User: Fold this.
Amino acid sequence: MSLNQDDFRPCIIIPCYNHGATLAAVLGRLEPLALPCILVDDGSDAATQVPLREAAARHSWVTLLRLPVNRGKGAAVMHGLRAAARAGYSHALQVDADGQHRLEDAPRLLAAARREPDALISGRPIYDDSIPRARRWGRYITHVWVWIETLSLSLRDSMCGFRVYPLAPTVALLDRVRFGERMDFDTEIMVRLYRDGTPSRFIDTPVVYPADGISHFDALNDNLRISWMHTRLVCGMLMGLPRRLLPRGTEKHWARTEERRGLAGMRFMLWVWQRFGRRAFGWLLRPVVGVYWLTGGNQRRASRLWLSRVETRAVQLGVTLPAGLNSYRHFLRFGDAMLNKIAAWRGEIRIGHEIDFAPGAEAYLNHDSGRGKLILASHLGDIEASRALAQHHAGLTINALVFTEHARRFRQVMEEIAPQAGVNLMPVTDIGPETAMLLQQKLEAGEWVAIVGDRTAVGPQRGGGQRVTWSPFMGHLAPFPQGPFILAAALKSPVVMMTVLREQGRLVIHAGPLSDGQALPRKGRQQALQALTDRYAQWLEQMALRSPLDWFNFYDFWRLPPEQEAEC
Assistant:
């Protein structure tokens, strides 16, 4: 849940270990902020404890906490973060006690945290000549590791201890993960918060290394700890990679799943492909999918539910299913679809070579009429492979309607790596008159418009109501979105259903007619809409029975989100 700016209640946290000589000056520079401060004594020696107690007694806004033995900077910061959360604060400004930071920039960090209360706000150090050369190079090495661990270049500096934490997600993460307690903490907490969906924002700020400054960095032991931290984070990245590639599962409805890391994940996939080829990427993907199958309980259960209903339905209809249906092979098939997706982006899937038409399908996908087509697709099969149609038909442009904001980032990748692919992504929030007019222009220009018909949006749509139609699918009623069928009627365009299945080791394009472009009648409109949805659901079922492992909706397809079920 996003934090409201009106609930912004920050405090200051200062971890301190034998910095009694600099603490008074640090507190003096922080006093104008008029914020409560939690000073955490990390087992300082007796000589330092005296000025710490005096500072707490002199400043009513300072609360002194003490760890009985020195445990490390990370342990002190975590102790302070938990104490701040218990005291009801929303954010914590972390400041080092050695005076390195330009504390006059603290108002800038706090203002940024107020503007973006769900983000981690961090200083981005600007160093002068006082920084030791080894430290400078060590930071560059850490930057590279962090970019690998997050598959992103957005974390500009993960080692600066001058930052503002949003306490709710931070403490929740601390309760779930065991962190390093020393110099490895600052980097690890930023990386793990990023992976959990907490963005980081950076503000340039000067940092100096005083000639008489005290450093507690242990060159041997701290470097070993940092190396072990990076090892854990890289392993976590590899284990978490399927979550960037596969649907998230049943703990959230698909439309509530954020795909904030999709851009970096796709770039990483393409980098591996370009450097090492498809075979190497396939070997990389296999253990990753295996780990995901072991750890993705929700997705695994959804897969087994799907296969169980497919097998039951096949018995009812007397259909013979392909051999070897199980959830692990289901996951592997999705991994194979990821490979085909990249190949399609790169123009490496061609009609007559890697992909063929099913009998009769080519007639429905002819581009000679001059008018565009409305294609009703789904998350069954390698729909990305249909990009080959744009190469097969000279001059053909396919416009794909997508209803999620991350499609803008997806389109950015497409423009970078495959501008010739001939497919435009069109992100929309809902289907209204403006969308219909735009698509009408596309169709009249001879372009194709593709939209998926198997996923429902979350929350009320334009005009109220949930806008779903329940139709029999694999022996049970399932919710299908009304939007694509209403759009087809509004455009008065013939609708072609299409999917791309893997059959006997080949990709095969299947297509069939849904409607001839007639408008929905005013009288009996709901019945006509139901008939269209039933026809689509029946065709989708027939295709899915041909290749059940090509079903890529890894959630309970027959349920709406809980909040929608309560309203229906």
Remarks:
- Confidence is low (pLDDT under 50) at residues 246-263, 458-465, 562-568.
- Residues 159 and 558 are 47 Å apart (CA to CA).
- The first strand starts at residue 10 and ends at 16.
